[in-house]
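PT: before anyone asks, these are the final sequences, not the draft ones from last week. 290 residues across everything. Please model them as a single complex and drop the result in this thread when it's through.
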Amino acid sequence: MPAKDDTAAVGGGQIAAPDQGVPVRYTRELLARFDGTDPRLPVLIAYHGRVYDVSRCFLWRGGRHFWHRAGRDLTDAMAEAPHADSILARAVCVGIFDPG
Amino acid sequence: MKQKTVARELIEKAGVDIDKLLDLLVRNAAAELTTYYYYTILRVNLIGLEGEGLKQIAEDARIEDRNHFEALVPRIYELGGELPKNMVDFHNCSACPPAFLPPDPTDVKAMLEVLLKAEQCAVRGYTQICNMTAGKDHRTYDLALAILHEEIEHEAWFAEFLGNGPSGHYSREGRPNSPYVGKFLNAGQG
Ligand code: HEM
Ligand code: HEM
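LR: through. Structure below.
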């Protein structure tokens, strides 16, 4: 599908298996539960309207990435990062972010 | 409360967020020391016709990464920071993912990719520290830039082996290690 704007290719990130039911919509509140504090839940971040699973990234252990926290929209934080958003290819796109 | 040095006062005044800077310095110091450790295992496993050819540059990168750790630590304390008490915490706060031995250690290409990724991550780390300190914290900038020069050379060595074309860089080939960082290694080991 990828959607209505052209950010679908951001990072060329892998996409969750289609049979897991696509897409999943995350509000700000729902996303906040995936901040890494509950070890039973995956660690998720939002970037440009997409939600990415970073549970398997060493550098996101415990939901922390340098001074950033998971469970949030980090679109504005990318500018100061020492990498382009193509780094998101190492994460898995699992849904869309809809702050409402 | 420890007294603030003039250096620290002026760096803050120049607009550097010292807590963030210290966070990055500690994480990158952790990346260097853990890389030194993981490269030790990689080096041991670089054997056979192909592996042996890589051994020396992996060794040069390993020694220089340890030198980077040594050079960073005094600056961390100078700025009022410290290393974590527990080495497990230190490992886990590394600015770069661990450079684990690939599942098949005879796969020299996989080995090279691990080495290359580690160096590329380091290049990112010091570029960021340089960006944060340029024109504001001259001493940290000078140190981070010296390390950056060496990390870029390491990246070039491994990239060349992976067939990414000529890099324009020569390996140390017996010349002394850490040509850039050497001046910071003054504690009797330079
Ligand atoms: C990066 C992961 C993905 C994101 C962020 C994403 C996002 C979206 C969005 C925002 C929509 C519009 C939904 C709406 O308006 O309610 C959509 C629709 C859709 N997506 Fe995805 N999607 C992703 C992956 C996939 C994958 C892997 C497939 C199938 C292989 C897929 C199939 C569809 C389909 C069939 C629609 C409905 C299209 C339509 O009716 O116009 N999506 N997706
Ligand atoms: C100042 C802020 C940031 C710093 C200092 C930073 C630093 C880094 C570094 C050094 C790496 C390792 C790169 C490599 O292995 O070559 C990395 C990986 C990554 N970063 Fe960031 N980053 C920042 C912000 C962000 C933001 C805002 C996002 C997402 C929106 C993000 C997402 C990622 C992801 C997904 C990875 C891959 C993780 C892995 O491979 O374990 N980063 N980051």
